[in-house]
Every structure is written in C-alpha cells, then in structure tokens.
Write a structure and sequence with these properties.
It holds the Pfam family Poly_export. This is Polysaccharide export protein. 26% of the residues lie in helices and 26% in strands. The longest helix is centred in the N-terminal third of the chain and has 22 residues. By secondary structure, it is an alpha+beta fold. It has a five-stranded mixed β-sheet with strand order 7-6-12-9-10. It has a three-stranded antiparallel β-sheet with strand order 2-1-5, with helices on one face. The chain has a two-stranded antiparallel ribbon with strand order 3-4. The protein has five helices and twelve strands.
Length: 215
C-alpha cells in the first residue's frame, strides 16, 4: 500500500511540475543565441554600431524589439527609451536591461535575452611581413577568427617574418588606450596540433603587425 501511495504521489508531483513549465509558472532560461561567433569568441564578442539586435523579455511580448544599433551603439528599448549597449557583451547587455527595468520599477523580475540577428560588416587589419597586407573583411556570418585564420586571409607570412613576436593591438572602448598582445606563433601552432583550443582570437578593428626577423 505504501509503495502504491508513493507511486501515485510521484506522478502527481511530476504532472504538477510539467504544468508549471508549460504554462510559464517556471521560467525556462534559453541560452543566448550566438550566430556567427565561434566558441572562442562567444564569451567576448561586444556589440557594435550597425549590429541588428533582437531583445526579448520572457512573458512580455510587447517589450520585444528588433533594431540596429546606431553609430553611437544606442537603440530605443520599449519603456526604457534610448539605451547604450555598444561595447557590451551579450550577457552584459542582458544584465543592464534587467537592472534598468527593475530600477525604473517597470518589472519585478525581468528575464531578458539579447542576441545578434545580423552583424554589421566588420574588418581587421594586418600589416608587416605578410604576403597580402591591409584591411580584411570577416567572412560572412563570422565576427571572430583565430589568428591562424587571420594570417591565412593575408596570404600567409613572408619568409622574413618574425614568428615569435607577432603583435595584436585591440582598441579599448571609451578611451584612447589599447590592449597589446604578443603572440608566439610557433607556440600557437604547437598548441593547435595538441588540440589546445586556447588560440588567440581576432575581433573586428584588431590590428595585427608581423615584424621582420633579424638575420
């Protein structure tokens, strides 16, 4: 009898949980879509002017918006008005919107999802000892590359390239400063062959410089 009662109770609880999920009683958190961004870039991609952004708020269809960021990285969000999302990662953008909805007392517990519906056309720059230097467009649908892909797009290194001290310069939003990364390409290649996915990732507006080696 006890076993039967336990079985019946388990079925009741399971049915109740399924009911809550299907009717919205339990929020289902969807993973942020990241079209065109590989696993290395997904965590770090930052929204840029010209990106078309999709914003949805769980159980609030009237607050959904599909809009392109203006040249200042701003878009018009329902209830919130002009909102600057430029330079934020997708998760940072979600957090900013959620916190603003709460602080402005529009929503109690908003669950916001931000995704990129279409990327603005972006480029990176590569100079120095490569066979085809200059500005390079990211392949359609991609917003990040590993450094090996970037060098391949520049026609590979010249015979005079210093492979151990390739420089990647990355602008820091909101300042005139930049991040400087020194890359030893031989170590990157060895790591890649071992299945190490910690490759240097190239983003839009990055500048790569390949110095000449000294004989």
């Amino acid at each position: 009898m006890k076993r039967l009662e336990y079985t019946v109770l388990s079925r009741v609880v399971l049915t109740f949980l399924l009911f809550l999920i299907t009717t919205g009683g339990i929020a289902q958190t969807a993973a942020t879509p990241l079209p065109g961004i590989d696993e290395r870039g997904a965590k770090f991609y930052k929204l840029r002017p010209g990106d078309t952004v999709q914003i949805t708020v769980f159980n609030e269809p009237d607050l959904s918006v599909l809009q392109e960021l203006d040249p200042n990285g701003v878009l018009i969000v329902p209830l919130l008005g002009r909102t600057d999302l430029g330079g934020l990662t997708l998760r940072e953008a979600e957090t900013r919107l959620e916190e603003t909805y709460i602080s402005e007392e529009y929503l109690i517990d908003p669950q916001v999802t931000v995704s990129v519906a279409e990327f603005a056309e972006q480029v990176f720059y590569i100079f120095g000892e490569v066979n085809q230097p200059g500005a390079k467009k990211f392949p359609r649908g991609k917003q990040s590359l590993d450094i090996l892909e970037a060098i391949t797009m520049a026609g590979d290194l010249s015979q005079y390239a210093k492979r151990s001290e390739i420089v990647v310069r990355r602008p820091i939003k909101g300042s005139d400063r930049e991040e400087k990364i020194i890359v030893d390409l031989e170590k990157v290649i060895r790591g890649s062959k071992r299945g190490n996915e910690d490759l240097i990732t190239i983003f839009p507006e990055d500048i790569i410089f390949v110095p000449e080696r000294m004989f």
